[in-house]
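Hi everyone, sorry if this is the wrong subforum. Our group has a chain we'd like a structural model of before ordering constructs, and none of us has done structure prediction before. Sequence below.
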Amino acid sequence: MIDFKMIENVYGEMKNRIASARKILDRPLTLSEKILYSHLSSNILDSPYTRGKSYVEFSPDRVAMQDATAQMALLQFMMAGKDKVAVPTTVHCDHLIQAKESSNRDLAQAMDANGEVYDFLESASDKYGIGFWKPGAGIIHQVVLENYAFPGGMMIGTDSHTVNAGGLGMVAVGVGGADAVDVMAGMPWELKFPKLIGIRLTGKLTKWASAKDVILNVAGILTVKGGTGSIVEYFGPGADEISCTGKGTICNMGAEIGATTSIFGYDHNMGKYLRSTGRSQVAELADLNADLLQSDDDVKLNPYEFYDKVIEINLNELEPHINGPFTPDNATPISKMKGLAKKQNWPTQIQVGLIGSCTNSSYEDISRAASIAKQAVDKGFKAKAGFTITPGSEQVRQTIDRDGFIDIFDKLGASIFANACGPCIGQWARKGAEKEEKNTIIHSFNRNFAKRADGNPNTYAFVSSPELVTALAISGDLTFNPETDYLINDKGEKFVFNPPDGIDLPKNGFSSDDLGYKKPNVNNENFKITINPNSDRLQLLTPFEPWDGENMVNMRLLIKAKGKCTTDHISMAGPWLRYRGHLDNISDNMLTGATNYFNGKTNFVKNHLDGIYGKVPQTQRAYKAAGVNTIVVGDENYGEGSSREHAAMEPRFLGVRVVIVRSFARIHETNLKKQGMLALTFKNKTDYDKIKEDDLIDFINLDAFSPDKEIRMVCKHADGTEDEIICNHTYNQMQINWFKAGSALNLIRSNQNSI
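Answer:
Right subforum, don't worry. Here is the predicted structure as tokens:
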């Protein structure tokens, strides 16, 4: 599976490209800059790029796709007219497996329910030369870390947590499927040159503190949008003390601060991990090129001169954290939780504790959690809360089973789910969730938006480390502090936990029997992929209509979304995952979770054709049938969360032409552009307040659409008054061409046909 020749070529080019960049910039380089400049699609560099402003074309080394997003990405790739992918690419079947009973039963049920989709993904992988990881093989990001990530590389993936590979020193970026199609088709990948946030770590993690607490603390500092448009680069003596998989945890959850990616420089822990996972050749090559895989010494010594922002964290002083509820940046040190929970009236009885997922399912995570579980089992305890474990990969599952950890969890009363995403993404068939009772859960996952895990808006979800989740699940109490508090067993004995004890890598190596990988068939040039036209799971795509070049006038407001509007609000996951390959069907979830500014309700908007209030998708379908163009208005950080491009494709498919907001999350803004949407921001954020429910809306200078030119919008109110609003945009000329063509894919196909 290792493409060692490709890695050799990357390192072979890095030295000269870095030297060229250092000469042009006339200064030392950060690690991120070294990787970015060495992956430019053009060998010619005449001048430095401006952080946060310059659009730059890159050539990533590989692409990874999870099964939910891969469906739409491959459907788009089929439209591009290419025979094979141009770079190493993999598909990972991890999102569609529902967590319900147990690993084996849930996997069998998934194979039955999703067979049509798995067959499509496997056959498309064969046809286009893509590696295929079968259902049960593991979560995409853990599998990539174990098999493909390498220091100094660049990859993109159709999932926001692709950034996990930063733990192995990669610039790894989550993107929408259309971006993946560009790279798979052999075209450059465009990204605005990121700003750089440096986080200097000193000291060493102590007692209950873990790598998870580093990013939970950072999330509290930067908030969910503080990393937008930036690469977060960790360095310092404290960074060298963190394991490779611990680094992955930190980078992974960097998606929750909006960061383009996060990254650590190459060190001995990365080398250890590479060797432990069967990539000694890569480790040896990285050792030889270590100077290329770290920031220059002057950067480390004088970080304030080279980063746009620097944060210093002393790991010696870092407390275990619990973040939430309902947002991953509400950071609370464990010592403060008792007082805060009482003040906020949070339910403190924990119903379920869940560990695992792509960010916290390494051997180290599980071994530390198991050490807590064993202490409890030895004293006669079972978990007072429900307790579940989701291994990150088949390799990890086999190894923790061999080393006795699963047996410990069994004795605690835990359930072992399949090696898949499960509860983290709403694929959790939680019994009783439909009652929508107020309750608390705690997990080691990344996101804790309302309704995300179980569909219940009254589930208060908190995020913490696997070892702390384990201790709190045993206690059943959100305010329990294992550093200071005690439990009492059935014998009346007081029990105090010792700090967790685990190791980063298994002493006897990883178990590696049949990990679930299938090489692509190299002889499928004449193979045809067939899709049942009556399928409710898969649907061939038809091109979106190009822009007619005219100003858009007399548009209607579909919804003015109030407050947090994530990709979960725009295109809910959970049960809707089954329709990720069928654009028409999944469009029936469009914006159903967004709160209507004018009535405070979800999925309830005014249809201006008849004056009747109804569901958002059905209202928009009525507008589409009547030939009425519409706009969507949003608040701050609109599109926060996942990379799912369905949140952009559904409005486009149903006839929404413009999304205007106070600010965008990076990936969602790009996805809108790729699909031929007009993505705008208010120049004056208070203009959000000027838009009324009954407005007719004109864009009066769109016919002169050009880079850096403001767009003028006129809101014609029902009382006869008008407001002119100035809108900003970030389109460059190529992106404007996407808009004109109707989508980026339309332009690719047009260029392909002209060859």
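For your construct planning: The chain has 24 helices and 30 strands. Residues 555-754 form a domain with the Aconitase; domain 4 fold (CATH 3.20.19.10).
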